[in-house]
Amino acid sequence: MSRFITRFAPSPTGYLHRGHAFSALTAHAAARTAGGRFLLRVEDIDLTRRRPEFEAAIYEDLAWLGLGWETPARRQSEHLADYAGALGELEARGLIYRCFRTRKEIAEEIGRAPHGAMEVFRGGPLPAAEEARRLEAGEAFAWRLSLTAAEAALEGFERLTFAEEGEGPNGEHGAIRARPELGGDVVLARKDVGVAYHLAVTFDDALQGVTHVIRGQDLFEATHVQRLLQALFGWPAPTYRHHRLLTGPDGKRYAKRDRAETLRELKAGGMTAAALRRELGVD
Fold first, then answer.
1. Are residues 198 and 225 in contact, defined by beta-carbon separation less than 8 angstroms?
2. Please, what is the angle between helix 52-64 and helix 18-34, to 10°?
3. Is-contact 242 164, C-beta < 8 A?
4. Rounded distance, CA 141 to CA 134, Å?
């Protein structure tokens, strides 16, 4: 078996649709072609939107598509202590800070910047006395990655790259210079929610030995900050293959928030898995 490990990592916040099926089939086919491994990871850290019925449907729908995966699937909600440990390491190194600003306050601050919406948020820790007062008052906060601290701590920050074997939304391919500054000081955790996407996904890819991240172009921009996290922790950088996004008859990409037709609805309407695979062009 080759050293090729990829994964499909859905969130149980809704039922799977054609876009999910295309991504899962694409990753599974790549693993099969390479004689490698295909993992399923359930990214269920959104505690307010996840539902048991959505997770159960993930397993049912993928099995209906004819996919197999190594069991048990990793469920992120079972490993919150691991992510907290990684967050603690960043805190000890002075790479993150507590941000008490609300989303509205940050949006207003960005709006006052010289270039308006083109700016991204960058901040820093509050004075110790003020932070202590806010903590004592029980105010909500987010842990943000400090790009200023990361740049100072990481030799070669400006030379970070990642390998793109697929294609970004603007045709990006090959060796891509990582530009984490495009995302500003991203949120890595919240007081009330726990770990956020960037830290959890990067931690798990490293832990599970993922060599190839195969996912949609909507996540291409996330690669920049994830590559920075890999470098800060000394984790290996996987190869990325971003694929095109499927769109419906209206030209909009399939998305849960737009109530895209689900695989369950397709099955109920009589579509077979073989027919769907032919439609998607992945067999």
1. yes
2. 50
3. yes
4. 9
If you compute the radius of gyration of the chain from its CA atoms, what whole number of angstroms results? 20
6 has which bridge partners? Answer: 38
Distances (CA, A) of 53 to 11, 250, 254: 12, 29, 21
Contacts of 84 (CB under 8 A, 6+ apart): 189, 194, 195
Structure tokens at 180: 């984490």
3-state DSSP call for residue 191? coil
- Give the C-alpha separation, 245 to 253, whole Å: 6
Buried b (16+ CB within 10 A) or exposed e, 227-236: bbbbbbeebe
Q: How many residues does the chain have?
A: 283
Mean pLDDT per 10-residue section of the chain, whose length is 283 residues: 89 95 98 97 92 97 97 96 96 97 70 51 93 94 96 95 97 97 93 86 98 97 97 98 88 73 94 96 86
